[in-house]
Amino acid sequence: MERLSIFPALAKSKLFSLFVCFVLSAFVCVSLNAAAYAKSDHWTGCRGDDLDARIAGCTEVIARGSRETKRNQLTAYINRGGAYRAKGDFDRALADFDKALQLDPKSALALLERASIYHAKGEFDRAIADYDRAIAARPKSAAAFSGRGETYRAKNDLDRAIADYDKALQLDKTLATAHGGRARAYRGKGDLDKALADFNEAVKLDPKSALTRVDRGSIYQAEGDLDQAIADYDEAIALDPKYANAFLNRANAYRTKHDLERTKQDLETALRLDPQLASAKDALDEINRLIAKSPAPRATEAPTVPPASAASPMLLVLLLLIALIGLFALGWVLILFAENIIRPTNQLVEPKGRSVKEDRE
To answer: Which residues contact 259 (CB under 8 A, 6 or more apart)?
Structure first.
């Protein structure tokens, strides 16, 4: 009996062990899934468009250290650096790109990003050095040539800039930034026709760029086509209602058309958007002086008939004399008419050279 009683105990212990194993397995699965979800959640933020979420997500990925692959760490540093750059925090952005380049000194993406920071800070030589390294690492990178062209243009080295834009467009004809950059370089050299052609291409490729619209408008304005220039400025303002320079440029076009009121309105709007816009301040002061000097518009008056008493005495005498002459002429005409019509019927008119007596014979 004792032996028989052992089997139920063993059976119960086996069931209990299976239950424990099942619970432990489920716990492990849930833990792994939670870890995987947490990891994917970090990467969702790190690769997202929201800048703060990207910084937070990439920071968590970076904090994982060696648990992440070298490639993942590189991506996290580049993405976080890009977010810092977009927020204007250039120092933190540079630190992240430096870290990325420590992980991979030939990372063209990290080099391009760091070059753009140096350009924004005005350190053009360091920017060009990074662009050179990026081109060496990726010789067919249109973005690298276009970026270096932008930096050469910022240094006013327009020929080198145009050469880089040319190369970028050979590699990618649809690169709107290269068309826009080359157009600005041509404008700097005074070649407005080539500049306008490139701006037209840039507008086709990127029709939502307010900057390109304003730049093309400036070319039309320089060529004297004020209506087309104003149309481009209108479009730029529609795309970006807070673009102060678009209002400033349109004000200059209205000023050239002598439309002082619209000029004033646009200058005031430009200053509301950017109170530090010195050129707008000076222009507005001048326009206010011109408006103050301009005569006030006269009110529309109904036409009046001058009084009869305003006629001069000499004119009255002349009119009376003309009337008398007319009456005298009319009387003379009536007398002649009466002599020829009212005449005796028996009166014969003698023909010239013959007598009445000869007729009777």
So the answer is: none
Coil vs helix vs strand at 292: helix
Q: What is the pLDDT of residues 321-358, one digit of tens each?
A: 676 676 666 666 666 666 665 555 444 444 444 444 44
Half-sphere exposure in the Cβ direction for 239 (13 Å, CA) = 18
Inter-CA distances, 226 with 189, 251, 256, Å: 22, 11, 8
Contacts of 111 (CB under 8 A, 6+ apart): 101, 130, 131, 133, 134, 137
Quick check: is 245 in a domain?
yes
CA-angle at 316, arms to 312 and 317, nearest 5°: 115
Is there a single domain that holds both residue 142 and residue 92? no
Are 239 and 278 part of one and the same domain? yes
Which segments within 50-141 are labelled E, that is strand?
none
Q: Which of 204, 237, 257 is the last residue of a domain?
A: 204
Q: Is residue 267 part of a domain?
A: yes
CA distance 331 to 256: 70
| Model pLDDT, residue 332 | 65
- Cα(347)–Cα(349) distance, integer angstroms: 7
Rounded CA separation 141/122 (Å): 23
Query: Please, what's the b/e burial string for 120-135 (b: 16 or more CB within 10 A of its CB; e: otherwise)?
Result: eeeebebbbebbebbb
Give the domain extent around 62: 38-105
CATH of the domain at 129: 1.25.40.10
Residues with Cβ within 8 Å of 2's Cβ and at least 6 positions away in sequence, in order, are: none
Tokens of 18: 């299976």
Per the structure, the count of domains in the chain is 3
Is the overall model pTM greater than 0.90, yes or no? no
Asked if residue 19 is part of any domain, the answer here is: no
Q: What phi and psi values does residue 59 have, to the nearest 5 degrees?
A: -65, -40
| Each residue's pLDDT tens digit, 285-317 | 999 998 888 775 554 444 444 444 444 566 665
Phi, psi dihedrals of residue 339, rounded to the nearest 5°: -65, -35
